[in-house]
Specification:
Layout: H1 3-10, H2 13-22, H3 29-36, H4 40-52, E1 56-63, E2 66-73, E3 79-83, E4 86-90, H5 114-122, E5 127-131, H6 138-145, E6 150-153, H7 160-173, H8 178-184, H9 190-204, E7 207-211, H10 219-231, E8 236-241, E9 252-256, H11 262-273, H12 278-288, H13 292-300, H14 313-323, H15 327-336, E10 343-344, H16 345-351, H17 357-366, E11 370-373, E12 376-379, H18 381-390, H19 395-407, H20 412-424, H21 431-441, H22 445-448, H23 450-459, H24 464-476, H25 480-490, H26 496-512, H27 516-533, H28 536-552, H29 556-572, H30 577-593, H31 597-614, H32 617-633, H33 637-653, H34 657-673, H35 677-694, H36 701-712, H37 718-727, H38 732-742
Parallel strand pairs: 5-8, 5-9, 6-7, 7-8
Antiparallel strand pairs: 1-2, 3-4, 10-12, 11-12
Helix pairs in contact: 3-4, 5-6, 7-8, 7-9, 8-9, 11-13, 13-14, 15-17, 16-19, 19-20, 20-23, 21-26, 23-24, 24-25, 26-27, 26-28, 27-28, 28-29, 29-30, 30-31, 30-32, 31-32, 32-33, 32-34, 33-34, 34-35, 34-36, 35-36, 36-37
This protein binds adenosine-5'-diphosphate.
Adenosine-5'-diphosphate binds at residues 109-113, 134-140, 240, 268, 292-293, 296, 368, 371.
C-alpha cells in the first residue's frame, strides 16, 4: 500500500475509532458496529481496508457452522518522519491524541477565557458546574477546557438510563466493560450502577461532560451527580446548565459564566470582522456586555448605531441576519429549526434535497446560526425559536422523513429516536411497522431502555400495538399481572409477528404461574399462527416455548427433540450468536437432565466456542458455569474448578451475585474434590460474605463447606455446620441438594454431623 492511501485511511475518523477500540482487545465486526453505532457492513468494509493496509489483523474461525472473523491491532503506533525528498512512516512512538468522541461540539473560533479554563482544569472537586444564560459560551468553554471529555447532551426526552448506557459504552472503549456488562445483562439496581460508573471513571481518570443539564427532567440524574460529587476521587464530571442545578456543595464547584471581557470581545471582533473602529466596538460591547453569541450575530448584521439598542435585541439581530440570508439558506434554517436534535449531514441531504445544501450549511455555520455537534448540525437554541416563527413549514413530513433515516441505522438508540418522531406526529398507521421492526431488529430495547421506551409509548395515542409493547416492558420488569391484563385485552386486535410474540409470551407467563392448561392453549394458538406466517423467527419463538412446556410436563425426550428444532430455526432466522448459544445451552441442559452428561458437554463446548468467537460475555460465562457443573458430575474436578472460577470472577465483576454464588458453590466443591483445602476455604468464605450482604440462600452453603473442610483437616467443623443448618432451616430441599453434590467428593458417612436433624 502506498503512503498516500495509508494517510487517506487514517484521515477517516471512523477508521481511527475502530483502531482505538481494537486497542482494548480483539473484536468482531458485529460488536464494533454496535459500539460505533454504525452498520455492520460498513464496519466490515473498513476492517478489510485497514487489514489490507497492514494496520489490523483478521483471523477466521469456524464456529457453529459459520465463519467468523475476529480482528485485532497489528500495529499500535505509527511514526511519520519527514525526510528531504521523502516521507517515512514507522510503527512506533507517534504521539497524537485525537478525541474520538462523537457528540462533542467542535470548537472553531475561540477567544480568551484563559482564567476560566485554568480554574476548571485545576479544581479538585469531582463535579464542576458551569452555569449562565443561553449563548454565553458554556458549551464552548467546556469543550475547549476538556478536549478529550466524553460528551453527553441532555435532551429532556431521554432518561438517565440513556446516560448510563452511553457512559458504559464509553468506559468499555477505555477497557472497562463492567458497567456495560451489568446493563446488558439486565442489571437495573441504581446503587450498583452508580458504583460501577464511579469505579469506571476513577479507574480511567476520564472526564465526562454533561451538557445542558437544565433540560433534564429525570430526578435520577441529579442523584447520580450528587453521588459522584461526594464519592468520586479521580476523574471529572463537568456540567453545563442555564440555571444553577441543585447539587449541594460537597464535592461540587460552581462557575458562573459571564460575558467576554472587553479585550476578549475585541479579539473576537477582529477575528470576525477583520477590523473595527474603537467607537463601534465600544457600542457593541455596551449593548452585548460581551455575550459571545450576541456579538457574533451583531458582527454578522449590517445595522449600525442606535438601532442596536432596541428592546428585543435578539429578535432584532436575528431579523437583521435573516434578511441577509439567501433563499436556500433560509429554507435550510427553517427545516433545521424544526428539530431540537443535531441532524446528521446524510439526513440533511434527504430533508433538503436538490443542490446547494453544502454552501447553505457552510454559510449558516459561519454566521453562528448553526453549530456542529459531533456528526450532526443544530440551530443554536437561542436562534431556534425565532427561526421557527419565521418559517411556515409544517414539521410532520420532515419528522417522518428523519425517522426513516434513523430506522436505517443499526442502533437501538436511533430506533428509539425514530419512534419518538413518529409518535410526535401521531402517525398511528406506522405503529405496526415500528413495533415489527422492534421485534425483528431491536428485541433488547424493552430490557435495555425500559423507561425511555415506556415514556415514548405513553405519549402515543391508544393503540393495540403500543399496548402490547407496554405489556412486554412490564413483563420484563416482573409486573406479570399488569402485563397479562394488557395482553389479554389487546391480543385479538393484533396481527402478524406482534400477535405471535404476545401468544408465546402468554404461554410463558402461564408456565411461570404453573397454569399448564392455559399455557398449552396459547401454545396451540401460537403454533397455528406460526404455520400461517411461516417465518423462521416466529417458529423459533414458538418452539422455544414448546421446549419449556414439554420439559415442565416431564416429557423430557420430546423436549430434547423440540430443542433441536430450536437450533434449526435459530439458524434459519439468523437469530445471532447469543440466541444460538442459548439454544445450545437448552440442548445441553436437557441432555443433562437425561443424565447424558458426555453429550451435554459437547453442546456446552459448542456454545462456549460460539460465545467466545463473538465476545458475548454474559452468555459465555453462563456457559462456563454449565461446563463446570458438567465436569463436576463427570468427576473431572480440574476442569470444573477452572470454569467455575472464570464464571465466578466474571459474575462478581458485573455484580450478579446470585450467579456468582452459584458458580462459587461449584468452585468450592470441585476444590474439595481436588483436596485443595486452603483455596476452597477462601472461596467458601467469599460465599458467606455475599450471603451476609444479599441473603441469597445458596450462599449459606459456604458454612457447610467450611465445616467439611475442617473435618477433612482432622478438626471439628461442628460450629460451621451448625451455622449453615440454621440459615437453611426453612430450605431443607436446598440443604439436601447441597449434601447430594458434596456426596460426590467426600464420604458423607464419615461425617455424621451432616445428618439433617
Ligand atoms: P451556551 O452553551 O452558553 O449556550 P455556546 O457555548 O453554545 O453557549 O456559545 C454560543 C456561541 O458563542 C457559539 O456560536 C460559540 O461559538 C460562541 N462563543 C462562545 N464562547 C466563545 C469564545 N470564547 N470565543 C469565541 N466564540 C465563542
Amino acid at each position: 500500500m502506498d503512503l498516500r492511501s495509508l494517510l487517506r485511511i487514517l484521515s477517516s475518523e471512523a477508521n481511527l475509532r475502530i483502531l482505538s477500540l481494537l486497542s482494548t482487545r480483539a473484536m468482531n465486526p458485529r460488536e464494533l458496529a454496535r459500539l460505533l453505532n454504525r452498520d455492520e457492513s460498513d464496519v466490515s468494509r473498513r476492517l478489510r481496508v485497514l487489514e489490507k493496509a497492514g494496520l489490523v489483523e483478521g483471523r477466521w474461525g469456524r464456529v457453529g457452522g459459520k465463519n467468523v472473523r475476529m480482528y485485532s491491532l497489528k500495529v499500535d503506533e505509527l511514526k511519520i518522519r519527514f525526510n528531504p525528498g521523502e516521507i517515512h512512516v514507522e510503527g512506533r512512538e507517534e504521539e497524537y491524541t485525537l478525541p474520538l468522541e462523537e457528540e462533542r461540539p467542535s470548537v472553531g473560533v475561540f477567544v480568551g477565557r484563559e482564567e476560566e479554563i485554568e480554574e476548571l482544569q485545576n479544581r479538585r472537586e469531582a463535579v464542576l458546574v458551569v452555569y449562565g444564560i443561553a449563548g454565553i459560551g458554556k458549551t464552548t468553554l467546556v469543550a475547549k477546557a476538556f478536549p478529550r471529555a466524553f460528551w453527553h447532551h441532555v435532551t429532556g426526552t431521554e432518561g438517565v438510563e440513556h446516560f448510563f448506557w452511553r457512559a458504559g459504552m464509553f468506559l468499555q472503549s477505555l477497557g472497562r466493560g463492567e458497567l456495560i456488562e451489568y446493563l446488558r445483562t439486565g442489571g437495573n439496581d441504581e446503587k450498583t450502577i452508580l458504583e460501577l460508573l464511579k469505579e469506571g471513571v476513577e479507574n480511567t481518570n476520564a472526564t465526562i461532560a454533561v451538557d445542558d443539564l437544565h433540560q433534564c427532567n429525570d430526578e435520577g440524574f441529579f442523584r447520580v451527580l450528587r453521588f459522584l460529587a461526594r464519592r468520586m476521587r479521580r476523574g471529572k464530571i463537568v456540567v453545563t446548565s442555564r440555571i444553577k442545578p441543585p447539587l449541594g456543595v460537597e464535592g461540587v464547584f460552581y462557575l458562573r459564566l459571564r460575558g467576554l471581557r472587553p479585550e476578549e470581545a475585541y479579539n473576537l471582533a477582529l477575528l470576525r470582522k477583520g477590523s473595527i473602529t474603537p467607537g463601534e466596538f465600544a457600542e457593541a460591547y455596551r449593548i452585548t456586555k460581551g455575550h459571545p453569541l450576541a456579538l457574533n450575530l451583531l458582527f454578522e448584521s449590517t445595522a449600525r448605531g442606535e438601532a442596536w439598542g432596541r428592546e428585543n435585541f435578539f429578535e432584532f439581530l436575528f431579523e437583521e441576519v435573516y434578511r441577509s440570508l439567501s433563499e436556500p439558506e433560509r429554507s435550510l434554517l427553517g427545516i433545521m429549526s424544526l428539530f431540537n436534535d443535531p441532524i446528521e449531514y446524510e439526513a440533511l441531504k434527504r430533508l433538503y434535497p436538490g443542490r446547494g445544501l453544502f454552501p447553505a450549511l457552510h454559510s449558516l455555520l459561519n454566521r453562528g446560526l448553526v453549530e456542529r455537534i459531533g456528526e450532526g448540525y443544530a440551530v443554536h437554541d437561542l436562534v431556534r425559536s425565532f427561526a421557527r416563527e419565521t418559517s411556515s413549514l409544517s414539521p410532520g413530513d420532515y419528522y417522518l422523513s428523519y425517522a426513516d433515516y434513523l430506522l436505517e441505522k443499526d442502533s437501538p438508540e436511533a430506533f428509539l429516536r425514530a419512534f419518538r418522531y413518529v409518535v410526535r406526529v401521531n402517525a398511528a398507521e406506522r405503529f405496526k411497522e415500528l413495533t415489527g421492526i422492534r421485534l425483528r431488529r431491536f428485541r433488547e430495547v424493552v430490557v435495555e431502555f425500559p423507561k425511555t421506551y415506556m415514556k415514548i409509548l405513553q405519549e402515543a395515542e391508544d393503540n393495540p400495538y403500543i399496548e402490547a409493547e407496554k405489556a412486554e416492558i412490564e413483563f420484563q420488569r416482573g409486573l406479570f399481572e399488569k402485563a397479562e391484563e394488557r395482553w389479554l385485552r389487546v391480543k385479538d386486535a393484533l396481527g402478524g409477528i406482534q400477535k405471535a410474540n404476545v401468544l408465546t409470551f402468554l404461554a410463558d407467563l402461564y408456565l411461570e404461574k404453573e397454569e399448564i392448561e392455559k399455557a398449552r392453549e396459547y401454545l396451540e394458538e401460537s403454533r397455528k399462527l406460526a404455520e400461517e406466517l411461516n417465518e423462521p423467527l416466529v417458529w423459533l419463538w414458538h418452539v422455544m416455548e414448546e421446549t419449556k412446556y414439554l420439559y415442565f410436563a416431564g416429557r423430557i425426550e420430546e423436549a430434547l427433540e423440540s430443542a433441536f428444532r430450536e437450533l434449526e430455526f435459530a439458524r434459519k432466522a439468523k437469530a445471532g450468536p447469543d440466541t444460538e448459544a442459548l439454544v445450545l445451552l437448552h440442548i445441553g441442559d436437557i441432555l443433562g437432565a437425561l443424565k447424558r452428561n458426555e453429550e451435554a458437554l459437547r453442546y456446552y463446548l459448542d456454545a462456549k466456542e460460539l460465545c467466545e468467537a463473538h465476545n458475548v460475555s454474559f452468555r459465555a460465562n453462563i456457559t462456563y458455569f454449565e461446563l463446570a457443573k458438567s465436569y463436576y458430575h463427570l468427576g473431572r474436578f480440574e476442569e470444573a474448578s477452572h470454569f467455575a472460577r472464570n464464571a465466578a470472577e466474571y459474575f462478581l465483576r458485573v455484580r450478579n451475585y446470585r450467579r456468582a454464588v452459584d458458580s462459587l458453590a461449584y468452585l468450592v466443591v470441585s476444590l474439595i474434590g481436588l483436596r485443595a483445602l486452603d483455596e476452597a476455604e477462601k472461596e467458601a468464605r467469599e460465599m458467606v460474605k455475599i450471603g451476609q450482604a444479599t441473603r441469597y440462600p445458596l450462599s449459606w452453603a459456604g458454612y457447610i463447606f467450611l465445616g467439611v473442610i475442617e473435618v477433612l483437616r482432622g478438626k471439628d467443623g461442628g460450629k460451621y455446620f451448625k451455622l449453615g443448618k440454621e440459615h437453611l432451616k426453612d430450605k431443607l430441599w436446598l440443604y439436601d441438594a447441597i449434601m447430594e453434590e458434596l456426596g460426590k467428593v467426600i464420604d458423607l458417612d464419615k461425617i455424621p454431623i451432616t445428618s439433617r436433624s
